[in-house]
Amino acid sequence: MSQPSQWQISHQEMEKPKNENDYFERMSRVIFMSGLNWQILDKKWLGIKKAFANFDVNKVAKFQESKLEELMENPEVIRNLPKIRAVIANAREIQARVGEYGSFSNYLVELRRQGGEDGLRDAISKRFAFLGKGTTVIFLFSAGEDLPKATREWENKHK
């Protein structure tokens, strides 16, 4: 049996989000990271977090067009309009899933129950803005989800 990779170890140690805001922050981080160097994101993260109300789902879901303009002028954030719109849309989508399932965690459990890992991955990438197949996997890993198929795919690709 081979030794686990560093990636596996860090994934296995990943802490599950405590609430919807934690899920939202992790999802938003993946969205802002897309196409960027992680060091750029790390340097701007505190400013982004502040600009997005510490990723409070209920507050961000209320952002209006005037807030978009303010965010696009804020040098502390990554000023990418599609990403900013996606983050706001996803706050509203998380709210809706919480309203339907009681919590975002319950929603993920139900997706997995109905469709397994593939169903979970597909549903998230279809329902949430700016999350494709790859970024969905990164989000789910960051949320402590066990994705054995994705892990095997990654390991096979990086042998």
Structural overview:
This protein is mainly alpha-helical and 159 residues long. The chain has a single domain, classed as Hypothetical protein, domain 2 (Endonuclease III, domain 1), CATH 1.10.340. Helices cover 71% and strands 0% of the residues. The chain has nine helices and no strands. The chain has helices spanning 6-12, 20-33, 38-51, 57-60, 65-73, 81-101, 104-127, 133-142, 148-157. It starts with 5 loop residues before the first helix and ends with a helix.
Quick overview of this protein structure:
By secondary structure, the chain is mainly α. Helices cover 71% and strands 0% of the residues. Helix 2 packs across helix 3, helix 2 packs across helix 8 and helix 7 packs antiparallel against helix 8.
Question: What is the fold's blueprint, element by element?
Answer:
Layout: H1 6-12, H2 20-33, H3 38-51, H4 57-60, H5 65-73, H6 81-101, H7 104-127, H8 133-142, H9 148-157
Helix pairs in contact: 2-3, 2-6, 2-8, 6-7, 7-8
